[in-house]
Amino acid sequence: MLKTLAAQIKEYKKASVATPLCMIGEVIMEMIIPMLMASIIDDGVTPGNLNHIYLIGALMVGTAFLSLLFGIGGGVYGAKASTGFAKNLRKAMYERIQTFSFANIDKFSTSGLVTRLTTDVTNIQNAYQMILRMCMRAPISLICAMFMAFYISPRLASIYLIAVIALGIVLGLIVTNATKHFSQAFPKYDDLNESVQENVSAIRVVKAYVREEEEIRKFKTASGNIYKIFCKAESIVAWNGPVMNLTVYTCILLISWLGAHMIIQNQLTTGELMSLLTYCMTILMNLMMLSMIFVMMTMSATSAKRVCEVLNEEPSLTNPEEPVFEVPDGSIRFENVSFKYNPNADSFVLKNINLDIRSGETIGILGGTGSAKSSLVNLISRLYDVSEGVLKVGGIDVRKYDMETLRNQVAVVLQNNVLFSGTILENLRWGDRNATEEECKKACELACADEFIQKMPDGYNTYIEQGGTNVSGGQKQRLCIARALLKKPRILILDDSTSAVDTATDARIRKAFAEVIPGTTKLIIAQRVSSLQNADRIIVMDEGQIVGIGTHEELLAGNEIYREVYESQNSGSGDFDEKGGM
């Protein structure tokens, strides 16, 4: 874990080294000041030597100024090193997430990844700054102060030693009990982020079903769980203060009482007693600082483990050693393909699929919910790997392709369409970053999106809000289809991506596909038979298996499932705009 994190320090190594050096300089200056103070009292104030007071006073001012400079340097370098470290961590995590397959992403929830990128990295950042500054300063300051105290009076310094040992045991017990609760808190942040994410992304559904109170209750529960855990932890940590104060004042009383007797017996000077009291505060405060460092380290250790889980996660899909960089054509062949999402699952999602699709063919896919239609097409662009068998595109096993090459030639319009904040043109150019405005308009014409874009005040420069909230579901689907078409793919997969489009528009889109991109293999998943009946062939799926394949007429005559779906959809008056179909 430490090796993984240390690799992200990178260009901030100098700042990471400069910070503790500045802290050491500050500690040395702070240790000198009490000795100079003792000299002023014993050799200046007591005998009335004004010149000595001026000289040592000037030295104290210079020492304090150097201490200030070292402290400022430690703060500046520490901030630079810790924020830079956090920046590199977030960048490395984000880049790693981009390499993940769907299987990797399924392992981490979206809310969990957000927590790791935000809260967990912030905890590590704070801990790293504390390590560079306080972890170096506190132990050295404590050791130096203890050494100076024994140098002045071993007898009185023994009081510090006993106090340090007793206080260390008590603070150790406090930290141990507090960390148990801190380690439980961070998984709860995932639940909180998940509640917020769901509510914000689905705010229209929440309001449509008047579920505001229920969502508020869920948020309060998630937030309350974090509150309770931190309250328990902080109530334990709160004992630090009283225990520390009791120890400090006890030490001061004992040192003052014994020190006064030693001064009367000429075994100690007044200045030395003042120095000892100063070192007393230094020793005990640094011990308390160390206890807080241990708490912070424990909190950050949990966060560090969660961050390293992402950084060390190996993508389940990788390029072969000598990948193929060209897809010959859009033919697809499934040879005894079976698939399951979890290798340890008992049953397969897809079972013994054998299918041969010619390049340029239009294939419809029909099946009930859970029949694994989406799972079937997800294998084609290698979003997942087959568990058994072989899947070929262009006559070549998909596992032999360069993944970027394969996915550029297999355009997928998923069931859940996503648009990003930016103009319509910017969204369209996700399909081809170098596409001209004319090419974008042509793709929109094919997807029947140009008709509503032209009515918008800024046309193709209209700004799309995050998630496409300012366009309708059908408009969003057509923009996503146009975006996919700009890739000029050899294979186009429409995963129920015209469900929000009326049948007349659906028919025009299919007609445009047939006329303009005849060489592109088209796989269309749909629930409406009217969207599929003109396909070259239609695949009927049930429980992860192909139970029928053929033309519309062939399936009506020989496949009971297809016939039942067709009859149920045509038993009434049909769609309101059915006449607009092909």
Explain the layout of strands and helices.
Layout: H1 2-6, H2 13-45, H3 50-98, H4 102-107, H5 110-152, H6 154-201, H7 203-208, H8 212-237, H9 240-264, H10 270-311, E1 332-339, E2 350-357, E3 362-367, H11 373-378, E4 388-393, E5 396-397, H12 403-409, E6 410-413, E7 422-423, H13 424-428, H14 437-446, H15 450-453, E8 463-464, H16 473-485, E9 491-495, H17 503-516, E10 521-525, E11 537-542, E12 545-550, H18 552-558, H19 560-570
Parallel strand pairs: 3-10, 3-11, 6-9, 9-10
Antiparallel strand pairs: 1-2, 1-4, 4-5, 7-8, 11-12
Helix pairs in contact: 2-3, 2-5, 2-10, 3-5, 5-6, 5-10, 6-8, 6-9, 6-10, 9-10, 14-16, 18-19
Characteristic key phrases:
582 residues; alpha/beta; six-stranded mixed beta sheet; 62% helix; disordered C terminus
Q: End-to-end distance, in Å? A: 61 Å
Tell me the number of strands. Answer: 12
Largest sheet at a glance?
6 strands, mixed
Q: Compute the CA-based radius of gyration.
A: 35 Å
Low-confidence stretches: 573-582
Q: Total number of helical segments?
A: 19
Summarize this, please?
The protein is of the alpha/beta class and about 575 residues long.
What does this structure look like?
With 582 residues, the protein is α/β, with parallel strands linked by helices. The chain is 62% helix and 10% strand. It contains 19 helices and 12 strands. The strands form 3 sheets. A 6-stranded mixed beta sheet has the order 6-9-10-3-11-12. Strands 2-1-4-5 form a 4-stranded antiparallel beta sheet, with no helix packed on it. Strands 7-8 form a two-stranded antiparallel sheet. α2 packs parallel to α5, α6 (154-201) packs antiparallel against α8 and α18 crosses α19 (560-570). It is elongated. Mean pLDDT is 83; it is low at 573-582.
